[in-house]
Amino acid sequence: MLIFSFFKTLMNTEITVELKNEVSIRGTIKSIDQFLNIKLDNATVVDELKWPHMSSTHDMFIRGSVVRYVHIPPDKVDIGLLEDATRREAEKSKAGAA
Amino acid sequence: MSADPKKEESDDNAEPLDLVRLCIDEVVVVKLRGDRELKGRLYAYDSHCNLILGDAEETIYITNAEEEDGKVRTVKKQHETLFVRGDSVVLIAPVESIK
Questions:
Q1: Domain Sm spans what residues (chain A) (predicted)?
Q2: Do residues A17 and A45 lie in contact, with contact meaning Cβ atoms separated by under 8 Å?
């Protein structure tokens, strides 16, 4: 839930999604759901020479499970807020389990 | 659970992820599937081991299958802020515990 909320704060920013099959796709994040499926607009493949068959797609839906990394612009991240939220979430899930 | 507040922090009800919680804002080493390793500052995690790391250095270990001399090539990449999906994560360790 925490990571989902975090991605919602990144709406309309430029991100690069690195997939498990080594393809990297750069685009504007337009939507995210609880499975961390991502909808990207104006998407381009980072290494077009290596993956020419992908260059014809512009808006895309990426299934969350095929994502390895998401590269996030550092200026969009409030580190203190993120760390506090993580600690709070950890406490909460522990209390819930007990 | 135990009524004794001291007991709350004792080892017998500690969860594995408590170690990760103590690593928030510390430098951690994360081993990943596909012969990859990341070293960076831990900003956030969740119960799926989804992570957000800052100033992460990625090391990819590449073994050349053709020359069976056991040589491993490494490729290093630097990332500013990185989300890592939990299903690729193998282990998370605080950096001072790796010697």
A1: 2-76
A2: no
**What are the domain boundaries of chain A?**
2-97
Residue B56 reports pLDDT greater than 80: yes
3-class secondary structure, A77:
coil
pLDDT of A51 over the 70 cut? yes
pLDDT of A10-31, one tens digit each? 999 999 999 999 999 999 999 9
The DSSP code for A17 is: E
Q: What is the mean pLDDT of residues B43-60?
A: 96
Q: What pLDDT score does B34 carry?
A: 94
For domain B5-98, which CATH number applies: 3.30.70.2390, 1.20.1290.10, 2.30.30.90, 2.30.30.100? 2.30.30.100
d(CA A21, CA A19): 5
Rounded CA-CA distance B16/B19 in Å is 6
Contacts of A89 in chain B (CB under 8 A): 46
Per-domain residue ranges for chain B?
Answer: 5-98
Chain B residues within 8 Å of chain A (Cβ atoms):
1, 13, 15, 17-18, 21, 24-25, 32, 34, 43-47, 50, 52, 54, 79-85, 87-88
CATH class of A2-97: mainly beta
In the A/B pair of chains, how many CB contacts fall below 8 A?
Answer: 79
